[in-house]
Amino acid sequence: MQCAYSDMPQKKVLxxxxxxxxxxxxxxxxxPSGIGKSTILEAMGLMNKTIMDGCEKFDYMGQDMRxxxxxxxxxQSKFRLQEFSFIFxxxxxxxxxxxxxxxxxxxxxxxxxxKEAENKKRNIFEATNLxxxxxxxxxxITKFSGGQxxxxxxxxxxMPKFNVLFGDEPTGNLDPSTAQTIxxxxxxxxxxxxxKTAIIVSHDIRLxxxxxxxxxxxxxxxxxxxQPVDGENKNHYGLIDNKSIYIRTDSGWTxxxxxxxxxxxxxxxxxxQMRDETLGKEAIQ
Length: 285
What we know:
The chain is α/β, with parallel strands linked by helices and 285 residues long.
């Protein structure tokens, strides 16, 4: 699958040669900035038609997702509401709503009653480190900090039913300790519901090695050569192939060549890969 944006339809921003995401896994997308990590979320989450014409099948639970772009906005919205949940770094909360109104909004749209929502309220606030706001949940969100609002976005995402949760830098506004706690709670939620999947875009390699079942490293390549970017060459795009995938095992991590890593070693290796591709191959020779 290849991706581009409508204003520059011939400029490829991402080429996905090979990618399978099993149900029930927490998957982290990592890599340098500007190589299509958010782009793939837009395509997979039916947020923006970035899939280039002529691309091969894009399968979700036995359905070819390309066909959904031919349907009405209403039909697409209904599908997203039933299948997906989202956490954005900018949180996208409704500023004229209270904390609790924001948190339960999507669940109510799905058909949950207010009573059912109230029964889940405490557990949701605990899971997202929002207990300090439990007694202030009817206050407008404008009274609270950016970190608190980001935790509200997490709460809103796990409150409703979903099959896939997409997170675009969801911990970017959180301190490391809070990010670790919330990501651990999210992993627990997934493990309690084996059919639920989370796909997280992040620059935090430490979090990825701690909590992911699978890490996908986006490579930054140039032109049609699929070689590392050379200096300031701007004709680049992101590439995902079999060399991009790192899978957690009982003893640590493994890659396409069956190389073994522990968390620390993989974190160091991925961080170095990202630094090298950010600088360009000329800068590191």
